[in-house]
Design a protein that fits this description.
Blueprint (H helix, E strand, L loop, with lengths): L1 H13 L16 H14 L8 H18 L5 H11 L7 H11 L21
Helix pairs in contact: 2-3, 3-5, 4-5
Length: about 120
């Protein structure tokens, strides 16, 4: 009850809530698992040049940083669609998520084509 009262007072004093809604933050994706699984899958099928785990993680972390800067500027339908697409097979990739939002409005972000990460499209040219 006291918490609700404090929230009402703060909202009326400052005009907006002090807490950012979860949807306004970049989704949390376990890219460590995705990168490990990606490297293992590439080795298993005999890809001659397997992307190292550290490179995958670097790309995924860079993609997340880029997304963190602009995620809240995209509409809910774009964010929902892209999150579902980037995590379609139960694992996710910030590179895929970044690519998806860029395709919805290419003028907003710099291209992600320099990032490979654990993207489902990483082996396509």
């Amino acid at each position: 009850m006291i918490v609700a009262f404090i929230s009402i007072v703060l909202f009326s004093q400052f005009g907006s809530p002090l807490v950012t809604q979860v949807a306004d933050r970049t989704p949390v994706i376990n890219v460590e698992k995705t990168c490990k699984d990606s490297v293992a899958a590439e080795k298993e099928v005999g890809i001659s040049v397997v992307q190292p785990f550290d490179d995958c993680m670097r790309d995924e972390n860079e993609a997340k940083q880029r997304l963190d800067a602009v995620w809240s500027t995209y509409s809910d339908p774009v964010r929902d669609h892209c999150e579902k697409e980037a995590t379609l097979l139960g694992e996710g990739s910030y590179v895929d998520l970044l690519t998806c939002v860029q395709m919805s409005d290419p003028a907003k972000l710099t291209p992600a084509r320099d990032l490979r990460g654990a993207s489902k499209n990483r082996n396509k040219t």
